[in-house]
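Structure tokens please, single chain.
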Amino acid sequence: MEKKLYEILEELNLKVPENKLKEFVKKFDVNSLSKETIKKLIIENLTIGESYFFRDREIFNTLKDILITKKFWRILSIGCSRGEEVYTLSFLINDLNLKAKIVGIDINSKRINQAKEGKYKFWSVRFLESIEIEKYFIQKDNVFFVKEKYKKNVEFYTKSILELSNKFDIIFTRRVLIYIPDKINIVKKLNDLLDNSGYLILGQGEYHPEIFEYFNFDTNPSILQKAKISKSPKTKNQKNKKKFYTKEKNLSLEEEIQIVENYIEHENYKKAYEIIKRLSKKYIFSYIVFKYKALVELMLNKKDDAKKSLKKALLLNKYDEEIWQLRYLIEE
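Here you go.
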């Protein structure tokens, strides 16, 4: 059975932590399932789906200066999940009075269907200002529907990057390469899909040496441009990028929360707790901080502390559905 699982992961070009794989085997009776059923379950349960609108806002702010240089853009979002990134791009294109064809792909068909629907819970809009929510969404109770005008230039498909052949001006592949074992061939494919002088967008803090054979960056290491001439991976840009990440940086709340999410995802709850405990002293009126604090405390079996943190989160925002779900877990 283990061999079959690894064959499927290789076929999907997915890298999954061992602890998650063990949980998956425990959860499902894989011995009695066909290969296609296991493949479907892997896609639905072991691919990353969490996102939110305007994630890594600094990247979108920098991207504006690139976008205004021409009127029409072909943009691809790889691993688009439920579509938050795609619609964020649509918001930006509309705000700049530009035109674009924005394509989102994901191997998870369930998430693609959700993306097409454009219906979101508060968690996806949690970092938006109220003025932005009003501008981009129609809100009904605690559900947020993307306005129709922002759906006109977007398309969603259940596909992998290897199935694509059309050219694009910009490709978003944020937090995708970290889950792919065979990065070299995927980077080559990205290079092939990008038009001359096209841009590749990574997530904040991502570092993949394989990329620098084909791409350069200027001031923002998350926004890379296709190199005119293929270069050796050991380039000046690569060295500069290493230096960039060794510099001290004052992180925003959003960036700090992303780090906490990453530690939680990899079950490093102690490290997550160190950060969230510090944040709870700095951001005393942030319900998100106290929600995460309650979750991590629950994982560390600090139930009394979790109850206190949850109580504060509820006082700060009683409309967040996930806080109530967390309350049920803590009190059961």
